[in-house]
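Box 3.1 A note on notation
Throughout this textbook, protein chains are presented in two layers. The first layer is the amino acid sequence; the second is a token string describing backbone geometry. Keep the layers aligned when reading.
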Amino acid sequence: LSQYFYDNNMKLKFYQRLSQRYYTDREYKFSDISNEMQYNWKKWQFYNNLVYTPEFNEVHESSSLISLREIEYYVTLGHTFKQKLSEKSIVVTANDVNFDFGYTYNERISINGGLTYDIDDASSKQWRFGGGYAQDCWSMSASVRQDITPRPNNEFTTENTFYVQFNFIPFGSIGTDSVK
């Protein structure tokens, strides 16, 4: 079941998607119930996706975002929650707060970045910072990122990544996947 509402200028104002699958060949016939919705108000965007598991009578996943988009910049604050409800599940659990930003200095130069913070571990999971430069027939972007993964015995590993990409308009792009 999906609903979409537009304003007089045909800009999307609100949408909602409610879904659940039914399986005839499984012991438990009903899958998760997903309710996704987004409301757009002026330069603001409010988003939520809630996934409920009837088999366990619990919320399995939830994602919420608030975004502000201006011509020169954007900021997004979000929360993601995922829990493993059975031993058979391959879901990676999460309880994270995310912050993302971008700033356009002029037509040619832009910067962006973000941070993911794990509420349960009270630690940073990831941060990234990058930027881009554009000319008439080419552009480039570069970023640096650090992923922090908790390990047993209060230890952790860090993985640093540097990424660069060159775009030759309209021919194609070349870039690195990951340099460590």
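The radius of gyration is 20 Å. Residues 52 and 59 are 4 Å apart (CA to CA).
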